[in-house]
Design brief:
The complex is a heterodimer of chains A (about 600) and B (about 300). Chain A has about 600 residues and is of the alpha+beta class. Chain A has helices at about 5-10, 30-35, 40-45, 70-80, 95-100, 150-160, 250-255, 260-265, 275-290, 295-325, 330-350, 370-395, 395-405, 410-415, 420-425, 435, 460-485, 535-540, 540-545, 555-560, 565-570, 585-595, and strands at about 50-55, 60-65, 85-95, 100-110, 120-130, 135-140, 160-165, 210-215, 225-230, 235-240, 360, 360-365, 500-510, 510-520, 525-530, 575, 580. Chain A has 2 domains: about 5-165, NADH:ubiquinone oxidoreductase Nqo5 subunit (Beta Polymerase, domain 2, 2-Layer Sandwich); about 250-575, Cytochrome-c3 Hydrogenase, chain B (Orthogonal Bundle), CATH 1.10.645.10. A 5-stranded mixed β-sheet of chain A has the order 1-2-5-4-3. The relative contact order of chain B is 0.17. Chain B is mostly helical and about 300 residues long. The radius of gyration of chain B is 19 Å and the shape is globular. Chain B has one domain (about 5-300). Chain B contains 11 helices and no strands. Classes of the chains: A alpha+beta (about 600), B mainly alpha (about 300).
């Protein structure tokens, strides 16, 4: 039996916990607004349109705002003259019709009052209710490229209508997916046969240019992605991007019958190499919702794992970058140096990757004291190995010649696209989610000392240098963590989750900030789970980096943001035998999870 | 020398020229592997690869005959180039202006590679061919000038006469240095493997080739590289060891050529392993500079320096 909207309505009744009559009455508005710098200014500027406000959890504020002023409000924050590094991180679309008859479109803003000061910065959620029969909202993408993809995403998956969107093509669903079928709506019916004749829709090749199709499968791109380079001679004039070939329906799966604990194991499988970042982000969101404080030892072990992950991923990346320009010796040595980290992680967690280590409320395995020696030994080995490697690689003339002055991303463009992580820091953005926002509920970054390297050049070489500097900082963090490791428990039980509450979890992955938004449902389930991997923000800026450079530079430039397509493209199942695509409904997910009970 | 001895040396030359190139590639792979802290494949791995490719049919994306013929024509050109070189004191195919012919047949290998890339509808093939063309257009004038210096220095256009008639001048030393660069570029080793760059243009002109035809192309490229190296080694050895009267001395010279060729390959491999690929505009710039340096050397040679 399919659960329909009607059934759901019978069970749920929506109430805004902090608000009454559309105003924050129970919660003290003045108290909330005076908690952080900038909140009151925003409230004063948009007073007429703000229906309610509330503090969702520490350092996360939500304003329910009229959809008409959404672009103005987003731009107010993003282009704030005082808070330079404030950016629109992403947004989430939710089908709340079973609860209150409305859709919700909600951009997240990471407000940076003072860069790298987690006590002053905060998140702002701009919640706009869209009527169930007319889910349209004014698009901000024309003035803010950072919103380009997310607005196309909610259009594809939830059927929202961003009006005046500059590029309303399909983003996630294939072009031949029928109109009017929206996978993330709660009443999505799986019996709908969505497959039609396969078609594609690409931008027209501009005049006097030739098309060089990099992808869907190409040597220089490890995962399926399609960069259509329009070239004149060898020079790239323009680029069209089509991705989302590895869309897996993870969000929908998580919103089905899986409990909050099972979703965590799905979350860490979003990515093959930054899985632990995703699981910590998710766990952090749920812990915030449950309002528990996890033990210090668990926070330290998590931070240790996160930093070990960063170390091996940066080494992996620098190897790939060398390979892209035919410098295979650099590739081999970077990966040789990286390998001991994987062995170490296997000793510590039982897996070469940190899979299965994390759990909501703590970690699953303790760090045995005699293993601390192993960690320190490996750190020493990595530091020496990387130093030698860098001495050689950065003195290889041909390698420098290929990386210097190539793929320049100016600060302004990086800001407009909300570019994150090392890519942003190489362009002069001073951001790092480890310190920018309050992470102390899940990790221990506030108790260790480290620097955040920032370069101004914005080219590929700067991205190499930023990552290598970060790697040495990470080694230093690991040494501090081992030194300061507190005793105690490694996990705390969560108990029952509050219903229909929202929170955000985030970590700084080696590519940029990972964001997990969780809205709880009934019975410890997840009503809406939204994942935003850093590549989702970095990839739209790649066409800007490619323009004006050579076809020969394209693989290196694309690789320089360390793209991870499978992270970015998370919702859909393809039947290999028939080629039929079907999107599972909640009922089907329930069946699946019963069938595979005990497997998860 | 007697005809039988000549025939023997020619035969030895042909055997070396056909069998050695894949082994040289094998040496290069081993050296690279060692520099990367790997074990590396066995020395005959390149032969195994070729054997496998030869045994497989090719997928042909076009009906054009050029696509099928290009690899064989390239192989024929490469073999002819190798036949024009001296093995010991014997040049298997010896006639008047064979330096000019040598120059042309070596270029022909690249030309056929380029044409093969243009015979198919593939953006990457076309890009690779365009790159190959840019390399030929910039490096060949340089090589022509350097050959000119050699010919002027020895007063002949016959390869063997040149090799035995060179006399040491400053311009000749400079020519050798520049020639080493030019021949390295023409061989298409990293950092000059721009036309066949895998990560950028998925093999360039070779991207549509498979099976037997691909194997033939690889074989042709290996033989071309061997011919260019053997030519350079001959330039290093033959002029300075005096006249070769006996077949015993000729055999010694052949052994010396052989050993030096094998010894030079690890150096090339080490250069390949420690460099990233350059971009085509870098190479064009470098070649243009080298060309003007070549002109100065030519002027020096004319002045008798």
């Amino acid at each position: 039996m399919v659960t329909t909207t009607k059934d759901l309505e019978a069970h749920f009744e929506f109430e805004c916990r902090a608000c009454e009559n559309g105003r924050c009455a129970k919660a003290n508005v003045d108290a909330i607004l005076s908690e952080r710098e900038g909140l009151r200014d925003f409230y004063e500027a948009f007073k007429e349109h703000i229906a309610s406000c509330k503090r969702m959890t520490y350092g996360q504020y939500m304003f329910a705002i009229d959809r008409e002023v959404l672009p103005d409000a987003v731009l107010w924050w993003h282009n704030h003259p005082k808070y330079k590094e404030t950016h629109m991180s992403t947004a989430v679309g939710t089908d709340e019709r079973p609860l209150n008859g409305h859709f919700v479109y909600m951009p997240f803003i990471s407000v940076q009052v003072e860069p790298l000061n987690m006590d002053k910065n905060y998140w702002v959620f701009l919640r706009a209710y869209l009527p169930g029969d007319d889910p349209s909202f004014p698009s901000v993408a024309k003035n803010l490229p950072a919103a380009l993809w997310i607005e196309r995403e909610v259009k594809d998956l939830l059927g929202f209508k961003p009006t005046n969107h500059p590029d309303p093509k399909r983003l996630i669903l294939p072009e031949d997916f029928p109109d009017g079928v929206y996978p993330l709506r709660k009443d999505m019916d799986y019996r709908h046969s969505p497959i039609t004749e396969p078609t594609t829709e690409y931008r027209k090749t501009p005049e006097d240019t030739t098309l060089v199709p990099m992808g869907p499968a190409h040597m220089g791109i490890e995962e399926p992605a399609h960069f259509r380079l329009f070239v004149r001679g060898e020079e790239i004039v323009d680029v069209d991007y089509r991705g989302f070939y590895s869309h897996r329906g993870i969000e929908k799966t998580g919103e089905g019958r899986l409990t909050y604990n099972q979703v965590l194991f799905l979350a860490e499988r979003i990515c093959g190499i930054c899985g632990y970042q995703h699981s910590v982000s998710y766990a952090m969101a749920v812990e915030r919702l449950a309002d528990v404080e996890i033990p210090d030892r668990a926070r330290y072990i998590r931070t240790l794992m996160l930093e070990l992950e960063r170390i091996h991923n940066h080494l992996l990346w620098v190897g790939i970058a060398a390979h892209m320009v035919g410098y295979d010796t650099g590739f081999m040595h970077a990966w040789r140096i990286r390998e001991p980290v994987m062995w170490l992680v296997e000793r510590l967690t039982g897996n070469r990757k940190q899979y299965g280590m994390n759990i909501v409320g703590g970690v699953r395995r303790d760090l045995l004291d005699y293993r601390k020696e192993d960690v320190l030994k490996t750190v020493k080995q990595i530091r020496e190995g990387t130093q030698t490697f860098l001495d050689i690689a950065l003195n290889t003339n041909t390698f420098i010649k290929r990386a210097e002055g190539v793929g320049i991303l100016p600060y302004k463009v990086a800001k407009a696209y909300s570019v994150l992580g090392p890519t942003a820091r190489a362009s002069g953005r001073k951001i790092d989610a480890r310190l920018d926002q309050a992470t102390r509920t899940a990790t221990a970054y506030d108790e260790v000392d480290f620097k955040v390297p920032v370069y101004k050049e914005g080219d590929v070489l700067a991205r190499v240098l930023v990552r290598m500097d970060e790697l040495f900082e990470s080694l230093w963090i690991v040494e501090q963590l081992i030194d300061q490791m507190p005793d105690g428990d490694i996990m705390v039980p969560i108990g029952k989750l509050p219903e229909y509450e929202e929170a955000l979890g985030f970590t700084e992955a080696h590519r940029g900030e990972v964001v997990h938004y969780v809205m709880t449902g009934e019975k410890n389930k997840v009503y809406r789970w939204k994942v935003r991997a850093p590549t989702y923000n970095n990839l739209p800026a790649v066409p800007e980096m490619l323009k004006g450079y050579h076809v020969a530079d394209a693989p290196l430039i694309i690789a320089s943001i360390d793209p991870c397509y499978s992270c970015t493209e998370r919702v859909q199942f393809v039947d290999m035998n028939t080629g039929k695509i079907k999107v599972l409904t909640e009922a089907e997910f329930n069946e699946l999870s019963i069938k595979y009970r005990g497997v998860f | 020398m007697e005809t039988a001895v000549k025939l023997g040396f020619s035969l030895a030359g042909i055997i070396i020229m056909l069998l050695l190139p894949p082994y040289l590639e094998g040496i290069a792979r081993r050296v690279k592997a060692r520099l990367q802290y790997r074990r590396g494949p066995p020395l005959s791995q390149t032969w195994y690869d070729l054997k496998k490719l030869f045994s497989m049919p090719s997928v042909k994306p076009t009906k054009r005959a050029l696509f099928t013929w290009a690899p064989y024509l390239a192989l024929a050109s490469a073999i002819s180039a190798a036949l024009l070189l001296p093995y010991g004191s014997v040049v298997p195919v010896d006639f008047g202006f064979n330096l000019v012919v040598f120059f042309y047949v070596v270029v022909l290998v690249s030309v056929f590679l380029m044409l093969a890339g243009l015979a198919v509808q593939n953006a990457f093939s076309h890009l690779g061919s365009a790159r190959e063309m840019q390399i030929i257009l910039t490096v060949e004038p340089l090589i022509a000038i350097l050959y000119g210096v050699l010919a002027y220095n020895s007063g002949s256009l016959n390869l063997y006469t040149i090799l035995t008639g060179l006399h040491l001048t400053p311009s000749l030393v400079l020519t050798y240095m520049l020639l080493a660069y030019a021949l390295y570029v023409e061989s298409g080793f990293v950092p000059f493997d721009i036309a066949e760059a895998e990560q950028e243009v998925i093999g360039g002109p070779l991207s549509e080739y498979s099976g037997r035809l691909l194997g033939v192309f690889y074989y042709a490229i290996y033989i071309k590289r061997f011919a260019l190296l053997w030519f350079f080694i001959s330039l290093l050895t033959l002029p300075w060891i005096g006249p070769i009267e006996t077949s015993g001395k000729a055999a010694l010279v052949l052994a010396l050529q052989f050993i030096l060729t094998v010894a030079f390959y690890p150096i090339i491999a080490a250069l390949e392993a420690t460099n990233a690929r350059l971009r085509i505009d870098h190479v064009v710039k470098m070649n243009t500079r080298a060309f003007f340096a070549g002109l100065i050397i030519l002027a020096m040679a004319f002045m008798g320096w």
